[in-house]
Design a protein that fits this description.
By secondary structure, this protein is α/β, with parallel strands linked by helices. The longest helix is centred in the N-terminal third of the chain and has 27 residues. The protein has one domain: Rossmann fold. It has seven helices and five strands; from the N terminus they run βαβααβαβααβα. Helix 1 packs across helix 7, helix 2 packs across helix 3 and helix 5 crosses helix 6. The chain is globular. The chain starts with a strand and ends with a helix.
Length: 173
């Protein structure tokens, strides 16, 4: 079973992914962490040093490699992963892969991201909750088309354990 978690930053992809991997007794990987290990530098530096186009090409290459090399895995993607190239088409064309959109409300995302915005390059320049809310709203509007191509959509307003159980029920049907 291959489960690929997609969704906006702060939606719980890593937290729920780890919980779900434990529940299903399979390996968990975080795509951004895998890229950082391969490139031996943080994502922020890859963007600065090599540019977004390089990063997006590397991202899809690493995604495909991970999915090809692992029969049972939970993979958390970056928030932008599904929105570039033909990533969602690729993921949804493989019957072994279940794509799951972890959907959070804008207010939940603001609440989760505001205090950690300095560690997230995309939002580190935003000073107020209102600026963050406007940024997330615009971004979600742009990305929601791709996120909604996922085969399963799960609301992430509950506890990670409850969300993991819901995913388990949906995937093992």
């Amino acid at each position: 079973m291959k489960i690929v978690l997609i969704g906006y930053m702060g939606s719980g992809k890593s937290t729920i992914g780890k919980q779900l991997a434990k529940l299903l007794n399979v390996q968990f990987k975080d795509l951004d962490q895998e890229i950082e290990q391969i490139e031996k530098q943080p994502i922020k530096e890859i963007f600065v040093n090599k540019g977004e186009i390089y990063f997006r090409k590397k991202e899809i290459d690493v995604l495909k490699t991970i999915l090809n090399e692992n029969k049972n895995i939970i993979l958390a993607t970056g928030g932008g992963t599904p929105c570039f190239g033909n990533t969602m088409e690729y993921l949804n064309s493989d019957t072994e892969i279940k794509t799951i959109y972890l959907k959070a409300t804008i207010s939940t995302l603001v609440s989760r991201l505001y205090n950690e915005r300095k560690t997230r390059p995309l939002i580190s320049h935003l000073e107020s909750k209102e600026e963050l809310k406007n940024f997330i709203s615009k971004h979600l509007f742009e990305r929601s088309y791709f996120y909604n191509l996922a085969s399963i959509k799960v609301n992430t307003e509950n506890l990670p354990e409850e969300i993991s159980e819901e995913i388990k029920r949906n995937v093992l049907i």
